[in-house]
Amino acid sequence: MVPNMPPTDRIRDLAGQGAPTVAAQRTRRRLRADQARQLADLLRHQLLTGGFPAGALPYETTLAAEYRVSRNTVRQALDLLRAEGLVERLPGVGTVVVAQKYRHGLDRLMGLAETLHEHGRVTNEVRTMGPVPAPAPVAGRLRVPPGTDVLYIERLRSLNGLPLSLDLTYIPLDIGTALLGCDLENTDVFRLLESLTGQPLGHADITLEAVNADAHSAAVLQAPRGAAVLMLERLTHLADGRPVDLEFIRFRGDRITMSGLLHRSL
What PROSITE patterns does the record point to (predicted)? Predict the structure, then answer.
């Protein structure tokens, strides 16, 4: 049930014999919009966690009764989800799920293919690969002198042919040179790094933020220019602490959702 949803039909002007004033009408519209956003959040969670396995949402009257809101509020909530590209209304059918978002965990150090293996085949289109002089910020993160050559890789990563992310990767050249002869189209870089170095990856520092897709990213990801993109910056270290993989990953915001399990520690 949607928490703390005030009944908008009780907002009246007591001095005006029950007729709603302009202020009351505005308040009612604002509260209905708040309710719609709250309901959209709950329905979105169910969509992302498989709460509607048949692919169709309950009827508007059913949702209104279940969440104790008006049908107008239900319609507004469904409009929000439709604007996100998650659902669509079909005549004679109702509201159906039209897009799936895939969960990407943030509490385990895994490559995209390892994370999404149960959903299908992840492939990588290697768009650019070769040595480049390390910009100062990259050199600092990888602990190499500025201007030192590092291996640069740009990949488009897709799931069952559906573009999910654009990855820009920097790797120290003493390790990266060996990657030039590897099958990067079908193998995660993480697995290759562990194989080439003979030791497991240890940990990663991550930063996650929401950005708008620039012209290049939008074209490669087949997304509208300015579309919401999740930018993950990840610096991965070997078990001995050496940084070996700096990535700037742009995920399509309408196809990936980030999740994790956090423990409180003070």
Answer: HTH_GNTR
